[in-house]
Amino acid sequence: MTLHETDRRADPRPSGGRGDDTPPSPPPSRRRRFRPGALLLFVITALLAALWLLPLAWAFLTSVKPEAETTAIPLRWFPTEFTLDAYRTVLDGGHFWLWLFNSLLTATVVTVLVVVLCTMAAYGFSRTDFPGKRALFAITLVGIMVPPQVLIVPLFDQMVLLNMVDTYWGIILPQIVTPAMVFILKKFFDGIPRELEEAALMDGARRWRIYWQIILPLSRPVIAAVAIFTFITTWNNFLWPFIVSTDPQFMTLPVGLAAIESGYGLRFARVMASAVLAGLPLLVLFVLFQRQVVRGVAHTGLSGQ
Amino acid sequence: MSVDTGPAATTRREPATASPPRRRRRNLTGLLFVLPFLLAYALFLGWPLVGGLISSLTDASLASGEARFVGLDNYAEAVGDPAVWQALWVTVKFTLLSTPLLVAVGLVMALLTNHLSPGRWLWRLAFFAPYVLPSTVVTMIFVWILQPDFGLADGLLAGLGIDADIGWLTEPNTAMVSVVLTTVWWTVGFNFLLYLAGLQAIPHHLYEAAELDGATWWDKLWRITLPMLRRTTGLVVVLQLLASLKIFDQFYLMTGGGPEHATRPVIQYMYQTGFTNFRIGYASAISYILFALILVVAVAQVRLFRPREEAS
After folding, report:
1. pLDDT tens digits, residue range A234-266?
2. Which of the residue ranges A214-228, B9-23, B97-111 would you say has the lowest mean pLDDT?
3. pLDDT in tens, B206-234
4. Do B110 and B227 have their domain in common?
5. Most-buried pick from A219, B101, B126, B208 (CB within 10 A)?
6. Hey, are the CB atoms on A301 and B190 less than 8 Å from each other?
7. What is the ipTM of this complex?
8. B207/B228 Cα distance (integer angstroms)
9. Is B69 helix (H, G, I), strand (E, B) or coil?
10. Are residue B149 and residue B189 in the same domain, yes or no?
11. How many Å is the Cα radius of gyration of chain B?
C-alpha cells in the first residue's frame, strides 16, 4: 500500500502513461558517466543476448545446409556449401503457399472484425447511454475471465451443428470475441476529453460521425496496438485452428507445419526451412512495429488475463 | 469492477429530460453500437459456455446422437479419475519448475539492460523476439536442438567433453525439463518487459538518497530494487500459474504427452477424451473443472492487483 503510494507520487508521467509505454527511456536526470563495471555489464548482457539468439541462428544455419550435413557428428556450425535446396523443396511441394494464404486470410479477417466490433462496443459503453448498459458491460467484463481453451469441446460440437468444421468461418468466428479488447479500448476512450464531441453534438453531429471522425482518429495508437496484437495472436493460435480443421485445405500455417513435421522424417534442413519461413513474417512485423507490439502485449497481457 | 459511467450519465441526463423523443433515439443508437459485439459474444462465447455446462451433465458423445441426462456423474467420475490427477500433477510440476526460472531470468535481463542504453533496441529484440513466434515454430526448433547425438544440445555438451546420453524428449523427467526450458526461452521476454517497466517506475531519489548514505550497488539492489519490484514478481507468478493451467501447445508438439502420459497436460486429456474417445459430456465436465481452477486463480489475481489498476 505504502509502496504504491510512493510510486504514484514519484511517477512524473501523466496518469495512464504507466506501464503502457514499455519502451522505456532512461530517466532524464540520469547522468551518463563511465563506470568500471559497465564493460563487464555489457559483456554479460551481450552473452545472454547471444544465447537467446542462438536457437534462431541455429535454425537458419541448419536450413541452408545440404541435408546430409545437418546430422554431422561432431557438430559443424557452417555449411560447406550454402544451399537453398531445403527452401525450394518446402515451397514447391505440399501446401505451404496455401497455408500461408489461409493464415494471412484468417488473421486479417479476425483483426478487422475485432477492431470494428470492439471499437464500436467500447464507444457505446464509453459515450452513449441506453437501458441495460451497466449490466451488458458487466457481462462483457465477465467474458474476460473465460479462457478460450476451456470452450473447445462444446465449441467444436457447435461447429458441427453449424456446418462450420473445415471452413474459414469456423476458424475465424470463435476468435473474434475478445472482451478484453473492449475493456482496453473503453478505458482509452474514457480518457478522451468530452469537450470535443460536446461541441460537435451541439452542431447537430450524429453519434456515428463522432465515432468515426473524432474518437477513432484520436485513438490511432491504441487501435494500432490492438490490431497488431490481435493479428499476431491469431496468426500464432494453434489449439483452435488445430481442432476445427481436419482437411489440409483449411489448415493455417502453424497447424499445417505441425501436421507435416513428422512427414519430413529426419530431414532437418527442410524442417528448419519451414520453421524459418513461418517465423519470418512475425519477426519482420515485430522489428517494424516494435513499439506497438510491445505496447499491445503489455496492455493485453495485464488486463486480458 | 467499477463501471465508470458517472460523468457520462450526468452530462447527458440534462438535455434528455428536455426532449424525451430525442433521448429515445439516442438510446437506440447506443445499443446499436454495442449490439454487433454482443451478438458475436452470445453466439461464440455464451452458446458454448452454456452448451458445455449442459452437456457436462449428460453422456453426450460424438459417436451417437442421443444424449442422456446423468446429473453430476461426469464430475464424480472426473474427481475419481487418476488421469485427471496425473494431468493436474503435470501442471503443478511444470509450474514449480518454470516459475522460478521465468522470474529469475526475466529479472536478470531487466536489471542488466535497464541502464545499458547503447543497443537498447537490440537487447529487447533478442530477449523478446521469441515471444512473437508461433508455438509450432518454437517447438520445431527445440525438437531439432534436442535430438540425441547430432542435436545442438548434445553437440555443445560433447564439445565440453561431456558425453550426454540424455533422451531429452523420451525420458519422463528430462522431457518435462526440456519443455520447461523451451517455454522459458519462448516466453521470458514478456516478464523481462514487465520487470523493465517496474524498474522504470522506481523513483530515482531513493537511489540518490541511498548513495548519499554510502550504499553499495548490492545494498541498493537488496534494499530498494527488489522490494520495489515485489508487486511485479507477484504478477509474474500469478500469470505463469494461469498459463500453466492452460498449457497445451508445447507439450503436445514436443512430447505428445508422453512418455506414458508423464507430460500430458489437462487440456490434452480433455481434448483426447472429447475427440479421440468421443465423450463430449465427460470432456465438458473436465473443461468446467479446469475453468473453476482458472477462475479461482484469476479472482485471486484481481484481488491482489486491484490497487495498482486503480492507480493507473
Report:
1. 999 999 999 999 888 999 999 998 887 666 666
2. B9-23
3. 888 888 888 888 888 888 889 989 888 98
4. yes
5. B126
6. yes
7. 0.83
8. 12
9. strand
10. yes
11. 26
Does B119 lie in the same domain as B208? Answer: yes
The reply to whether B39 and B165 lie within a common domain is no
Q: Which amino acid is at B36?
A: P
**Which is nearest to B55 in space by CA: A152, A177, A63?**
A152
Please say if the pLDDT value at position B93 is more than 80. Answer: yes
Residue A187 structural domain: 95-303
Q: Is a pLDDT exceeding 70 seen at residue A301? A: no
pTM for this model (two decimals):
0.84
- Asked, for residue A42, whether it belongs to a domain, the answer is no
Tell me, yes or no, whether B283 lies in a domain: yes
**Residue scoring higher pLDDT (A14 or A232):** A232
Q: Into how many domains does chain A fold?
A: 1
Q: Is B220 helix (H, G, I), strand (E, B) or coil?
A: helix
Mean pLDDT of A178-191: 92
Residue of B nearest to A53 (CA): B126
Q: Burial, A39: exposed, middle or buried (Cβ in 10 Å; 0-12, 13-18, 19+)? A: exposed
**Domain for residue A238, yes or no?**
yes
CB-CB under 8 Å, B200 with A52:
no
If asked whether residues B138 and B234 sit together in one domain, one would say yes
- Residue A196 maps to which CATH number? 1.10.3720.10
Query: Do B115 and B183 belong together in one domain?
Result: yes
Looking at the fold, whether B92 and B181 belong to one and the same domain comes out as yes
pLDDT tens profile B292-302: 999 998 888 77
B262-298 CB burial, b ≥16 within 10 A, e <16: bbbbbbbbbbbbbbeeebbbbbbbbbbbbbebbeebb
| Domain-located, residue B240 | yes
Check which CATH number belongs to the domain holding B206 and give it.
1.10.3720.10
Q: Which residues of B touch A22 (CB under 8 A)?
A: 193, 196-197
Predicted local distance difference test score (pLDDT) of residue B307? 55
Asked if B132 and A285 come within 8 Å (Cβ–Cβ), the reply is yes
Reported as a single tens digit per residue, the pLDDT across A153-168 is: 999 989 999 999 999 9
Chain A hits for B226, CB-CB cut-off 8 Å, are none
Same domain, B32 and B136: no
Range(s) of the domain holding residue B87: 73-311
| CA nearest neighbour of B15 among A191, A129, A133, A136 | A129
The grid coordinates of residue B307 equal: 490497487
DSSP B58: B
Counting the structural domains of chain B, the total is 2
Residue B140 CA to residue B25 CA, distance in Å, equals: 56
Between B289 and A205, residue with greater pLDDT: B289
Q: Which of A201, A130, A192 has its CA nearest to residue B35?
A: A130
Domain assignment present for B10? no
B44·A22 Cβ contact <8 A = no
Mean pLDDT of chain B: 83
